[in-house]
Amino acid sequence: MIVRRIIEHREARGLSQGALARFIGYPQPYLSAIETGKRTLTDGVAEALDKHLGTHGEFVALLEMARKLLIEPGAREIVSQETKAERIRVFTSSVIPGLLQTEDYARDLFRKGLPRDSDEEIEEKVTERIRRHSRVFEKADPPFYRAVVDESALARPASSNKVMAAQLRAILSYQNQPRIKVAVLPFGARVHGMQGGSLVLLDLADGGTVALVESFRTGQAIETPRIVVEYEELFETVQSQALSAEESNALITKYLKEYADEASE
Questions:
Q1: How many other C-beta atoms are found inside a 10 Å radius of the C-beta of residue 11?
Q2: What is the pTM assigned to this prediction?
Q3: What SMART domains does its record include (predicted)?
Q4: Is 253 helix (H, G, I), strand (E, B) or coil?
Q5: What's the CATH number for 2-68?
């Protein structure tokens, strides 16, 4: 859709590819790569196209729409509200939470979980995941973020020990940010109600809370207050069984050392 609209607007104005590239201030090979699908449209190019072609935000809107399509359908509604949340609460049973993932760790997950996707499609999804982190945590007034991560997410290595060590270093660095707290649910914790899945709770500025429950490649958005409360109870249960901040950091550091030592061998 985006490529077709670029070409349609360019041809309607009688512009060659080189002329349009000069017009918007980008190299012709760069625009050619976008029109042939070898590169994806960026925020800068979308804004330049809208500005110089007078398309009134069309390309910015198309780009945002394309990014939403990179997210599993059941999760789109909730993900679109992340930037509006006053607080985000997350539980994951087997992976590092999406907003805290490094590029390499996210890339590993996408490659294993989406075997039919091309390298370009995988990179688009990785880029969008990292962009979500920036949109949520790098704004002027970021939300409070509380994550409970099962120890299995730490124990299960990524494609390499180096990737996993970098991911755990990132987690520890986030722990230094005053609004981000990550607690580990140890293997010794009792059986609980969210084994095998993950949960995201968004506490919104209007006082409401919405939930996203995910399992293998599926996601269900939940807004019914009575059901949301049930999931809040489940979250509070696992949070009560999680390690303290100091204990969590110590366990993360233990795994980090093991991965780093093995990566250096």
A1: 11
A2: 0.72
A3: HTH_XRE
A4: helix
A5: 1.10.260.40
